[in-house]
Amino acid sequence: MNDAERALATLGLALRAGKLESGDEGVMKAVRSGAARLVIVATDASANAMKKYTDKCKYYGVPCIAAFDRKALGRSVGKPERVAVAVTDTGLSELVLKCMANHAEEEFH
User: What is the helix (H) or strand (E) element at residue 84, kind and residue range?
Assistant: First the structure.
């Protein structure tokens, strides 16, 4: 299992542990409430969606990275597609960041 696969598996673990929000409203609510520890935005998200998530994360001081495509993010959390997910656990978010250190397409914050 490579680092990217390990990061996706960790997202699935976070979901099963109740430490992951997905869907536009869930991710935004987690960011606004201070619960989000990391936001991952799909690399194929629209420019508007990318800007919305990165601006909101920057304002609230939440790390935000662009990685994977919508389908890979969705598969990791048992959904068809996901534009963004938010990890709400510090340890799990650090594990994902560690796995993604060399694989993130672009780090915004």
Answer: strand 84-87
For 68: left if phi > 0, alpha if psi spans -120 to 50, otherwise beta; the answer is left
| Predicted model pTM | 0.91
Q: How far apart are CA 8 and CA 1, in angstroms?
A: 11
Q: Are 37 and 10 in contact (CB under 8 A)?
A: no
Residue 30 Cα to chain centre, angstroms: 11
DSSP 4-20: HHHHHHHHHHHHHTT-E
pLDDT digits (tens, 9 = 90+) for 47-101: 999 999 999 999 999 999 999 999 999 999 999 899 999 999 999 999 999 988 8
Whether the CB-CB separation of 37 and 87 falls below 8 Å is answered with: yes
Q: How far apart are alpha carbons 88 and 27 in whole angstroms?
A: 10
- Alpha helices by DSSP H, 34-89: 47-60, 70-76
